[in-house]
Amino acid sequence: MIRWQNLWRFIPLFGLMMLLLTGCGDQTISALKPRGPVARDQLFLMKLSFGIMLLVVVVVFVLYLYVLVRFRKKKGDKDIIPKQVEGSHTLEIIWTVIPIILLLILAVPTVQYTFKLLEDHRDNKEALHVKVTAHAFWWQFEYPELGIATAQDLVIPTNKKIAFELTASDVKHSFWVPSLGGKMDTNPGNTNVYYLQADEVDVFKGKCAELCGASHSLMDFKVKSMDQADFDQWVAKMKTPASVPADAQKGEQIFKDNCLSCHAVNAQGLGAGPNLNGFASRELVAGILPHNDESLKQWISDPQSVKPGNKMPKVGLKDDQINDVIKYLNSLKLK
């Protein structure tokens, strides 16, 4: 008995810990703070399902407590067996009909929003078509109608449907931008479609939501939403070849000799590795490291130490060659 009494003392502590943990996390990857119409619809469904479950739990507990108090054995009661009542058509109808009604309340909007989310907007002239290809462990983004391709940073205009066409090059991944909407699987040899939309200018964090290998947790990307005018400028800059300064041309040649077979540096190029057009304008290296010379050197020297299991090999460059390549990569800035 004393043992159980001691355990009860920990309940307030556990409650406090749970309360504190609710404040943990990254607000940019919260599905509870929708930043677009798709995310708002999905949050509505979550609230609806939670509300129905809460209603059922409250009703059941209230009835349980009522029966517990109303029919408890009182002091002085005789040890008699109460009258046994078996079967009640009224009660049976009530507890059959009520769950059906609750299921319909949940099912109708769920089916409605599910089919709405899966609408194919690729042929919609008012939407932006983006092809997403998941690789181990990075993301490739193509804009077919605009004639550009990039990696890791998905740039989109605000207040416009983004029609996604999703696939994978190796294993199953899952494309997820919590602030804008739910996840969608990317499968090798198969194409899934859905759409998202951002309401305002901001930067949202995206992740892979399907266990896909050793660096699954590091398979992040960014979604940058901007006004249509700024987006048009970004497209124009992506199509403008970067001018390489004289002091970076040595690194450019080393890059061409060792890296160009996998990494494109033009607007439309696709390869085994990420397109590096405008690379110097990105905030992260390999999607996770801060963009600086030290991170670049770490990645080029030993990519497996940063993202275990990725497909980039050790190039075998000397330190001075790596420094020259870094100087060249830092010249690939959108202007």
Question: Can you tell me about this structure?
Answer:
The longest helix has 34 residues, at 37-70. The chain folds into three domains: 30-63 and 89-117; 128-239, Sandwich (Immunoglobulin-like); 246-329, Immunoglobulin-like, CATH 2.60.40.420. The chain is built from nine helices and twelve strands. The chain has helices at 2-8, 11-21, 37-70, 89-117, 228-239, 249-258, 293-301, 303-306, 319-329; strands at 128-135, 138-143, 148-151, 153-157, 162-168, 173-177, 181-186, 192-196, 202-208, 220-226, 284-285, 289-290. It is α+β, with helices and mostly antiparallel strands and 335 residues long. Helix content is 38%, strand content 19%. A hairpin with a 4-residue loop joins β2 and β3 (148-151). The strands form three sheets. A five-stranded mixed sheet has the order 3-2-1-5-8. The chain has a five-stranded mixed sheet with strand order 4-10-9-6-7. It comes from Paenibacillus elgii. InterPro entries: CcO_II, CcO_II-like_C, Copper_CuA, Cupredoxin, CuRO_CcO_Caa3_II, Cyt_c-like_dom, Cyt_c_oxidase_su2, Cyt_c_oxidase_su2_TM_dom. Its EC number is 7.1.1.9. Residues 246-333 form the Cytochrome c domain.
